[in-house]
Design goal:
141 residues, 6-stranded mixed β-sheet, two-stranded parallel sheet, 3 helices, binds zinc ion
Length: 141
């Protein structure tokens, strides 16, 4: 890895929203953007998966651009791009590796393979290499 990205810290209520979004879209993949600073997530943008697929996702380009502009204006960072895996583990698929276009942000995956116990995983993907990151859940009782 050319640059080691920070691990993620996500408040519990934001994580709940990610899981809720994944459940709403099930059996399709949900997707969106996690914004923050130095890996500390402060905001979640739920995006539309325009592929409407259960094995892939694509964010609407104009919606994505709008969020990217807002992030830049506010001096924040694109910490991670998230999506759900309705039927597979919280680990990047070959497609996720091939389509990792933002090497400065992490990929966060929410797996609903076990519906009762959603799993999450965050990864740095660069030049086909996958490195698992720690996700620290803040405010968890
Ligand atoms: Zn995936």
């Amino acid at each position: 890895m050319e640059k080691i990205l920070p691990d993620l810290e996500i408040p519990e209520d934001l994580l709940s929203r990610l899981i809720e979004h994944a459940r709403q879209k099930y059996p399709l993949e949900s997707c969106g953007i996690l914004v923050g600073k130095n890996g500390k997530i402060t905001r979640v943008y739920s995006m539309e998966n325009i592929e409407k697929s259960s094995s892939s996702y694509l964010m609407a380009p104009e919606e994505q651009l709008r969020v990217f502009r807002k992030i830049e204006e506010e001096g924040l960072e694109l910490s991670a791009i998230y999506h759900s895996h309705p039927h597979s583990p919280a680990f990047p698929s070959q497609r996720d590796v091939d389509y990792a276009f933002y090497p400065d942000s992490l990929i966060l995956i929410i797996s609903l393979m076990d519906q009762k116990v959603p799993q999450i995983g965050a990864f740095q993907i660069e030049n086909g290499k996958i490195e698992k990151k720690v996700v620290k859940i803040m405010g968890k009782k």
